Predict the 3D structure of the following.
Amino acid sequence: MFSAYVVTALAPYVPLEPTAIAALLEAPPSPDLGDLAFPCFHLAKELRKAPAAIATELAERLRAEGASGAGSPVAEVTAAGPYLNFKLDRAAVGARLLSDILTQGDAWLGSSAGAGRTVCIDFCSPNVARRMHLGHLRSTVIGKALARLHEAHGYRVVRINFLGDWGTQFGKLIAAWKRWGDPAAAAVDPIAELQRLYVHFHSIAKEDPAVEEEGRTWFKRLEDGDPEARQLWAWIRERSLASMKSTLSLLDVGFDDYNGEAFYEERNQAVVRLLAERGLLVENEGAQVVELESMPPCLILKADGATLYATRDLAAALHREEVYHPARSLYVVDLGQGLHFRQVFATLEKLGAPWAGGLEHVGFGIMRVGGKRLRTRAGDVIYLEDVLQQSIDLAREELLARSPGMANLDEVARAIGVGAVIFNDLKQNRQKDIDYDPAEAVSFDGETGPYVQYAHARCRNVLRKARVGECAPVPHPAYTGAPEWSLLTALARFPAAARDAMQRCEPHLAARALLDLAKALSHFYHESPVLRAEPGAREARLALVAATAIALRRGLWLLGLEAPPMRDENT
Ligand code: ARG
């Protein structure tokens, strides 16, 4: 961050903490005035002086005591009314930033803020026995980005897929399989067969209550540990997991922990006992609940003694604390489940769990395709795999049109197509509902993943053509030019954006900074010659391109996108 130079220069002279100074710095109205400005209004009260007088005095002191001027990263400080304007030694600070990026390479961007600490991220977490659909996309994409953002900041990350692998639907599936199951079809495509059975079960059960009853009986047998029921359940889960993993491999996501609702079903009784011991369980219309302030009670046991979603989430939270002892525990689940998580967290608070404050519901809005809200219960389910495949196909068409001789076309098309879907999601505030327009998302122009991926590939192509080896940037006047300086500024801002994105669980802050970087790069290419620049400027700009390539690659990685080379075999 370039502002750090100003903070360091100014801190000894003002009664403010460095972080407070940093927060007050702004961009002057015109770059001719300076690179950063400090408003002195905030000091007027404490120093009992007019802001303009404070600015004049501070400027003089900084100059007199050598906090600015030749040899210092702050080249010039001037007072302009109530503002202090700072001009940086752009050539020197630019070269320093670039050396930093180039020496660290792919280790650049990040910190050790989370060293020795663990973060659990519960994401994806689909209900099994069905193919993954569009509704599972956002959690998976946001969760993956949050995992990488935390990893880059030194955390140990535990990726948890809390499978929805328990519940009455398993009784129905088993009953349907016993009656109408087709082993041949199941051998070919088990998930399709399970989905067929589920639909069929419901259509028959509507007319025939005996069938519904059969489903209930099988679920009861499953709960009681009946071997046949258990075996069929395990088969359904195992096949679902295999299908899920194949979809997830397209998104390059893996998990450390697949303990789902079934796993916690066995631990539920401990939760019930604990709540009862603490006197928190209350009877409410036959059910056992925990009463909470300013929200509906948390349901723990139904009247028939069956446990609920909240019971299992309580069991899971207690277990995760025991096993992983996380500093942060994130639940990347749609905003529709907001109340559920508030109830679960509040119940843990009631239990006096001191770690409950580390639990966060990272909620997100709905995803629409072409303006239509996704309906999961209707027949028109959009499968996740199809969404990705369609985007990959569009990317391939686009690539063929742009550079027919592209090497590794299939690989690049996959990286671009999948990246388009991911970036379309992450560039927007997660709380908002988002629209997915396949053609728009995959376009190489506009605020898209492919635009950023292309910017990266372009850097690599320039560096390849220049045949540069190691770059060791030195201060050069080329860095003072407006396009160069805005690119340097975009680079300098990126680490703070990544840190904020991690802390606030807002990947879009990093995505936005990445777009700014790619845009600054395009502007720079447009304005300043690189390969054809004169010696000196050429090396200086090549170092800028090399550092930008690293930053773009790192940024794409953080968000879960690949950075494929895009090289035309004909050039
Ligand atoms: N399986 C749930 C669903 O599909 C999401 C689970 C989210 N994670 C959790 N710990 N509750 O709605």
